[in-house]
Design brief:
Length: about 100
């Protein structure tokens, strides 16, 4: 086989490997999720609403925001807690309540 034939062969092998990897990821439900905040930040929730923000580590949340309750902090978009906090919020007393704008 000549040089051109070998190159074509490698391309076919590479394309087949890529196709197999994509198929495997799709079939296993593997997906890449975005982090809620960037490295060095933590997420906070709007008191009485479903809004959120990210605050640099070591800083306090802005007025009107609070930390998520321990163990209920969303880490990635669409994870269990990110979905939960779309319909719940924290009131001024720190209690978890249904969000008024949950529709």
């Amino acid at each position: 086989m000549g040089t051109a034939g070998r190159r074509r062969g490698w391309r076919v092998v590479a394309a087949a490997a890529l196709t197999a990897a994509v198929a495997a990821a799709t079939l296993t439900g593997c997906s890449i999720r975005d982090d809620i905040c960037s490295e060095g930040e933590y997420p906070v929730i709007a008191v009485g609403g479903t809004g959120s923000a990210c605050v640099p580590e070591g800083e306090r949340p802005s007025k009107g925001y609070t930390r998520y309750p321990e163990g209920k902090v969303p880490q990635q978009v669409d994870d269990e807690w990110d979905v939960y906090w779309r319909t719940h919020t924290v009131d001024e007393g720190g209690d978890i309540v249904d969000a008024p704008d949950a529709g």
